[in-house]
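pls design
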C-alpha cells in the first residue's frame, strides 16, 4: 500500500522519483528493484539514456542534467545512511521542502525493499505491467476531508 502511494500520491515529479528509485537499486545492487523500475521509469518519461546512466553508475552523464546532483546525494545517503548540511542544502536548492521530505521517504522505503529482497534472496519479477506504470503517472488526488465523509455518512449519503 505504501509503495502504491509513493508511486501515485507525491508532489515529486515521476521522472525524478523513478531515477531516485533506480539510484537506490544501483547503490544497493538490488536487481529486484532495478528490473521493476527500469520499466516504470521509461513509462513515466525518463529517457533510455537517463536510465542507463543511473543503472551503470555514470552520474556524470549529460543525460542526467539537473538530476545529477540529487542522485549523488541519494547515492551518498544510501551508502552512508546519512547526509550532511551540504547534501540537504543541495536537495533544497533543487526541490521544495515537501519534495525534499518525499524524496527522503522514497529513498527510505526503497532501501527497505532492497534490504528485504536481499535478505530473502528474492528473484526479480518480470517488469511492471502498464497498470503499474499508469498508477505511477496519475495525478495525485486531493486529500479527502474526513469531516466531509462523516457529514455525508450522517446524512446517509454513501462515500
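designed seq:
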Amino acid at each position: 500500500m505504501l509503495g502504491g502511494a509513493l508511486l501515485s500520491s507525491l508532489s515529486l515529479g515521476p521522472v525524478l522519483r523513478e531515477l531516485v528509485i533506480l539510484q537506490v537499486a544501483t547503490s544497493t545492487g538490488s536487481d529486484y528493484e532495478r528490473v521493476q523500475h527500469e520499466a516504470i521509469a521509461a513509462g513515466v518519461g525518463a529517457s533510455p539514456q537517463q536510465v542507463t546512466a543511473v543503472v551503470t553508475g555514470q552520474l556524470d552523464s549529460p543525460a542526467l542534467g539537473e538530476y545529477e546532483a540529487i542522485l549523488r546525494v541519494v547515492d551518498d545517503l544510501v551508502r552512508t545512511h546519512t547526509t550532511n548540511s551540504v547534501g540537504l542544502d543541495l536537495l533544497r536548492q533543487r526541490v521544495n521542502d515537501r519534495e525534499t521530505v518525499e524524496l527522503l521517504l522514497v529513498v527510505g522505503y526503497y532501501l527497505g525493499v532492497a534490504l528485504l529482497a536481499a535478505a530473502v534472496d528474492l528473484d526479480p519479477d518480470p517488469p511492471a505491467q502498464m497498470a503499474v506504470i499508469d498508477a505511477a503517472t496519475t495525478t495525485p488526488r486531493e486529500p479527502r476531508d474526513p469531516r466531509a465523509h462523516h457529514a455525508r455518512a450522517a446524512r446517509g449519503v454513501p462515500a
